[in-house]
């Protein structure tokens, strides 16, 4: 077999030269060698750059640790992130801090129980940069700082305050006050949602948290807690406070235009969450079918029902079996909203059509104890009354009203201030819209209405 060298030697003696195929093969070989060399050079340059930027990142991390160690006030040493550009590379320096009672253990501000002491502050610094290789680890540097002065005065105490958002993260810039005054300046919460009240005289204090536009898990704008301080120890207080979400309720969804609800803010809407039941006052739309509520943005949301007594809660109605059909009452699907956003919340109610006529135009619904049933139908613990105002139309006309779940008696009179007249004449007749809402609403000629939330369960 003749090698390429022999062929080349023959070509040197033969003026015919190399063929096109041989030229192409030679060019391909040259390209492969060039690509390999270029790849090796690029890899070498990348490794060189990686080593260089890691050295710079390590220096930046060390500088951040030195700055932390030079801080006079460890309470002012907080989380922060900054970007630094050096030699065309952008470095991201992230510092996180946390008080600890032991270098190997976490210490969460406001943790329940109290009685611990603040001893050290742990500082963790992480440096990353643009164009990092996939899987490359950032540069880290850690330290634990020991305050020069005692944080806990042996004759006084410390109050740790923690304010968390609905998602469990810290809520910064929350104003904290104490009653009576502790005699020291109280800083707003830091990036971790923490603040510390130092050198507090022993005694009992009421701690309040407040931030504009925020609401607590108890649906209050300024939640408060009481804490006792003893000498030489740390007491803890925790709040859950977040930017309020707006819930636009729609009472009796699908109700015809002109449907009436109790006047003013007298028609309560109960909000069921994993934290219990709240009956907040509307921030707008009271006395209409579309009240608006400003609520804590629980991630699990709210399941609403109209009214506030036991019979209005669908969960209080026992499951029943009639023939081959099972009837069961359930709360609506939960509705959740992110902090600062607005969502629509349907609130089911019963609808009844009232014909005009009788004594007066003022209408009132009053809870009554239902007839004995098996299982028993829930009732209100005490009489509940809802005033609709002047809503009864002229004879021959009708108006539709919305009622919470439960058993009610409708009364009418010539004035809201004349109770005897309101109770003197029962409204008749009553008509149920088609289809009946809910499925099992019933009326009597005596003006008694049962709004039953139980619906047939599909087999």
UniProtKB/TrEMBL annotation:
Q: Which Pfam family is one of this chain's hits?
A: N_methyl
Membrane listed as a keyword: yes
Report TM segments. 20-42
Entry-linked Gene3D superfamilies: Carboxypeptidase-like, regulatory domain (2.60.40.1120)
Query: Does the keyword Membrane feature in the UniProt annotation?
Result: yes
Q: Which UniProt keywords apply?
A: Membrane, Transmembrane, Transmembrane helix
Name the record gives this protein: Prepilin-type N-terminal cleavage/methylation domain-containing protein
Organism from which the protein derives: Cellulomonas phragmiteti
